[in-house]
Design brief:
about 55% helix; two-stranded antiparallel sheet; about 240 residues; mainly alpha
Length: about 240
């Protein structure tokens, strides 16, 4: 009932019955996900082979149909000064999406070296963005994204919640549904899952650790979050 990472460290022990039950669930989910991963891999291979997936069409879809294309003004919370006339998530997602699609086409053309180079760029770019997307989502629908932290001496400061806290909020399941929430947890933050957010952010991954299926899931998660129909205020 322990997790051993690639360095031989033991970052987590599951001692209580509730923790063991949770670990058992994640291990069962792993085998279930393996079945879907074979299907997802074949699906994207066929789409790329048919020439039905390119950067221009994906960027247009995101801009036209997902809330990532919404423009809105960004003001300073204290002075109310206009900082940016417009801000769109599609702009910061685009480089990672382009690298991901380039990797798929290079795999098709059997250019393995360059495919992995683009895969690394795509994974490192898109994985941290999911946290920002979830935070933006919560802020838009009025859910708190800040927390109060007590420092030494009793001084209290506020800081943004991390993705672990955002995905473990009591209302997260109600918002995303159990299926999407479990997928996001397993891929992004679970120590007994892929734990991509931690591994990418802390540079625990080396060239051979970057797998195509990881980027498939990140791409799918981004599409799923963006498909919610929410109203972004102009200010």
């Amino acid at each position: 009932h322990t997790i051993i990472d690639s360095s031989g460290n033991m970052p987590r022990k599951y001692d209580s019955e509730l923790e063991k039950k949770h670990l058992s669930l994640l291990r069962q989910y792993h085998f279930s996900l393996m079945t879907y991963e074979a299907m997802v891999t074949v699906l994207f291979e066929e789409i790329i082979e048919a020439g039905k997936l390119d950067f221009e069409s994906v960027a247009k879809y995101m801009a036209d149909h997902l809330w990532y294309g919404k423009e809105y003004e960004l003001h300073d919370q204290d002075t109310k000064e206009l900082l940016l006339k417009s801000r769109k998530w599609v702009d910061v997602l685009a480089p990672g999406i382009e690298a991901y699609l380039n990797a798929l086409n290079m795999i098709k053309n059997e250019d393995v070296k360059e495919a992995r180079n683009n895969l690394i760029l795509a994974t490192d770019s898109l994985t941290p963005k999911v946290e920002g997307l979830i935070r933006e989502f919560y802020e838009t629908i009025g859910k708190p994204t800040d927390k109060i932290k007590t420092e030494r001496g009793g001084k209290q400061v506020t800081e943004k919640k991390g993705i672990d806290e955002l995905l473990r909020e009591s209302y997260a399941s109600e918002i995303f549904g159990d299926d999407l929430l479990l997928l996001m947890k397993y891929v992004l933050i679970e120590l007994s899952g892929y734990n991509l957010r931690n591994n990418v952010s802390h540079a625990f991954m080396f060239r051979e650790n970057y797998l195509l299926i990881y980027t498939h899931w990140i791409f799918i998660i981004i599409l799923r979050i963006g498909a919610y129909q929410i109203s972004i205020k102009s200010k």
